Amino acid sequence: MKPYVIGRVMGIGLRVAGRVAGRRLAGSHAAASLPRVAMPTTAQSRAAGQAAGLTSKNVARGVGGFLKPFRRVGSIVWLEVTGVFFLLPVIVFAPNLWRMRASWEHGPEHRMFLLTLGVVVVFLYLGVTSFWRARKK
User: Fold this and answer.
1) CA pair distance 90, 103, nearest whole angstrom
2) In this structure, is residue 101 part of a structural domain?
3) What is the pTM of this model?
4) Roughly what angle, to the nearest 10 degrees, separates helices 42-99 and 110-136?
5) HSE of 50 in the Cβ direction (CA atoms, 13 Å)?
6) Is residue 118 part of a domain?
7) Are 93 and 102 in contact (CB under 8 A)?
């Protein structure tokens, strides 16, 4: 048996697992009537594991190579969508900030003005830097 043939290795494992499950379902008295199967040796198991690892590594490299052109475009789109969502609170809170501009120093809505100003400044910074990072890519 070639160690790089993954289908054979998985087929043998599936047959052995099926026989074990059949024995457990049938009970212990029917276990004696089933034929014995030679278990694979440690070297065969190790070779099968290495073949599976090599196959999965090659599949991961192939998928990564296929998706590489989409990674850059996807990250730019992600940054732009994130920037739009960061600018939404700015659009919502900016009219309130304009309405409360008269109480910026010691008016009745001084605390609310400062809180709204903080929210607008933070989200404006996050939105602008998100678009800036997208432009740099």
Assistant:
1) 19
2) yes
3) 0.52
4) 130
5) 9
6) yes
7) no
Q: Which residue has the tokens 């998928």?
A: 63
Question: By residue range, what is the domain housing residue 74?
Answer: 69-136
For 115, residues 6+ apart whose C-beta sits below 8 A from its C-beta are none
Q: Which residues contact 89 (CB under 8 A, 6 or more apart)?
A: 119, 120, 123
Quick: pLDDT tens for 78-102.
999 999 999 999 999 999 888 888 7
Domain membership of residue 97 (yes or no) is yes
Helix (H) or strand (E) holding 50: helix 42-99
CB 103, CB 109: distance < 8 Å: yes
Residue 18's pLDDT is what?
Answer: 73
Q: How far is CA 83 from the centre of its chain?
A: 21
Split into its structural domains, the chain has a count of 1
